[in-house]
Design a protein that fits this description.
- The structure is a single chain.
- The protein is α+β, with helices and mostly antiparallel strands and about 120 residues long.
- It has a single domain (about 5-115), classed as Aspartate Aminotransferase, domain 1, CATH 3.90.1150.
- Helices cover about 35% and strands about 25% of the residues.
- The chain has 5 helices and 5 strands.
- The protein has a 5-stranded antiparallel β-sheet with strand order 1-2-3-4-5.
- β2 and β3 (about 55-60) form a beta hairpin.
- The longest helix is centred in the N-terminal third of the chain and has 14 residues, at about 20-35.
- It is globular.
Length: about 120
């Protein structure tokens, strides 16, 4: 994770091994779509910031969660995967559920969440 600060690296290194591939996949998608994204720690989790937009990506016991996009800025992701909604503005992904989702759907979510 070149180019990120020590706090982000420490967080990522502490992610449980079963969740790390999913986190790395999402990180790769986010940084490919927005190479200009600043990655910091906010609310104790990695936060991708592009201008005023934020996308938070955090590891939890059984997977990885995405938080922080405004309103309907999910690129239709939750309409296609309503079972992954966990409260307002939260997607909880278990590795096995994420494995069945194509990267293009995550790219649509990232574009909608972080693009001006």
């Amino acid at each position: 994770m070149a180019g990120v600060d020590a706090a982000v690296r420490a967080y990522v290194e502490a992610i449980p091994p079963q969740n790390r591939p999913l986190f790395d996949r999402l990180h790769g998608i986010i940084t490919a779509e927005h190479p200009d994204a600043e990655v910091t720690i906010s609310y104790d989790i990695p936060t991708y910031r592009v201008g005023k937009r934020r996308l938070y990506v955090g590891s939890w016991q059984h997977g990885v969660s995405l938080y922080g996009w405004g309103g309907d800025r999910d690129g239709g992701f939750l309409a296609r995967h309503p079972d992954l909604r966990s409260g307002k503005g939260t997607i909880k992904l278990r590795p096995e559920a994420a494995a069945a989702i194509d990267d293009s759907e995550f790219r649509d979510l990232v574009r909608a969440a972080l693009s001006p």
